[in-house]
Amino acid sequence: xxxxxxxxxxxxxxxxxxxxxxxxxxxxxxxxxxxxxxxxxxxxxxxxxxxxxxxxxxxxxxxxxxxxxxxxxxxxxxxxxxxxxxxxxxxxxxxxxxxxxxxxxxxxxxxxxxxxxxxxxxxxxxxxxxxxxxxxxxxxxxxxxxxxxxxxxxxxxxxxxxxxxxxxxxxxxxxxxxxx
Length: 180
What we know:
Keywords: Lipoprotein, Signal. This is Outer membrane lipoprotein carrier protein LolA. Pfam families: LolA_3 (PF19574). It comes from Hydrogenophaga borbori. By secondary structure, this protein is of the alpha+beta class. It has one domain (7-178): outer membrane lipoprotein receptor (LolB), chain A (Clam). 23% of the residues lie in helices and 50% in strands. The protein has 4 helices and 11 strands, in the order H-E-E-E-E-E-E-H-H-E-E-H-E-E-E. The chain has helices at residues 7-22, 94-108, 111-117, 139-142, and strands spanning 26-36, 44-53, 57-64, 68-73, 76-81, 84-89, 118-124, 129-136, 145-153, 156-164, 169-178. An 11-stranded antiparallel β-sheet has the order 6-5-4-3-2-1-11-10-9-8-7. The mean pLDDT is 91.
């Protein structure tokens, strides 16, 4: 169980976590994602791999139930599915930019970028089990997602959960597989 930290200690611990993450070059993880949607009786489960290379390259390859590739390279987000490809600059869509920041800025250890888009709260200790809770500052993003919870141990993120404003939620579990 993670206990809440005092404000000053939480700020110090957050700074330490961000420094640890910023120093990490990246890696590859397997993921299992469960999307719990009100319109479905059972969660929609997808599996695949995610790779991150510091400072700004993130790829998500969904292998099942349907192959898909999502690539974030600097400011360009590219989706490949069904032999089609669509790209867009992230900076032109503020809500997409904020959503992307939740993962990429955490992996980069970029506290300032996180705090531009979210109220950030940390429980736990960086070298041990920690949980980062992100609550959107922008009304437009709050209309989509109410909370993002990212958990891990040291530099290893092992869980990402999204709570959507419509009551749906997504749970992603991550397991390391090596370096990209």
